[in-house]
Amino acid sequence: MKRLAFIGECMIELRDADGAGGTGGGSAMHRTFGGDTLNSAVYAARCLKGADATVEYVTILGDDPFSTEMLAAWRAEGVGTELVTRRAGALPGLYAIRTDSSGERSFHYWRSESPARDLLTDAGAPTLVASLVDFDLLYISGITLAIMGAAGRGRLFETLAQARACGGTIAFDSNYRPRLWPDEDTARREITRGAAAATLILSSFDDERALFGDNTPEESARRLHALGASEIVMKNGAGTCLVSLRGDAKDGNESGELRITPPTVERPADTTAAGDSFNAAYLAARLMGAEAATAAASGAALAAQVIQHPGAIVNAP
Predict the structure, then answer these.
(1) Residue 11: CATH number of its domain
(2) pTM of this prediction?
(3) Which of 36, 207, 270, 276 is catalytic?
(4) Structural domain boundaries, residue 203
(5) For residue 57, what pLDDT is reported?
């Protein structure tokens, strides 16, 4: 059985109930939940339903009713919660989504006191680390790194190194969000550490260009390969997705560059979780033995479905 763990933060999600964000006027809000690594965990569990695999989510929540609702919803999706810590008196973070006429979203956050910021620095950290190193795949993002303090990130990188030494896959999405970092230099340094810890990188060219000044997805892939990852997936919105592989031919591993054109979506409703859902489908397919081209096509197809519905986690099949 393959075991996957997604590490990060889930928040309460608010969005305009009519889906017409950005208009103001005090419209009714729809409440659900979301967060980049949690979104990927849910979509991965859906993609792997019926397969010989388990998906766990790793975070810290409060003991409030909203956290209880989250846990129940994750379990209903097939996401395990054995590695979720609950803290008395704490509350999860919150974010609101506004979307423009083209479906492009913007976020507004209230998360400064989220308990997930203490991942790997609380009293249960040693037990959690011992559990994580045995997983077949650990998934983190730049947002995971951004919400953690320096001590938590240090312990996380040590954990990833142990898991990698045991043969585990470390998957990383840079998911650069400037407002979560104190400055660009810190973000650049820590996201580079995250990429260097990974064996498989699923990133967005927009993020790589914004933080590192890359001119093309190919340039981003070369820079990331130099950090040690053998498999790079460079998403590019509605544009062509680049998959760059540097395998060892004698071991039968794939090598070379692939380009996947995503399905056309004329009028996206909400681009929230497009990348998160792509990552989930890609990882699920690869874990089940699919070639990279097939996995990328699966990722693009799922993302195309997701952006036709409002919110991070959609009810569509």
Answers:
(1) 3.40.1190.20
(2) 0.92
(3) 276
(4) 2-306
(5) 98
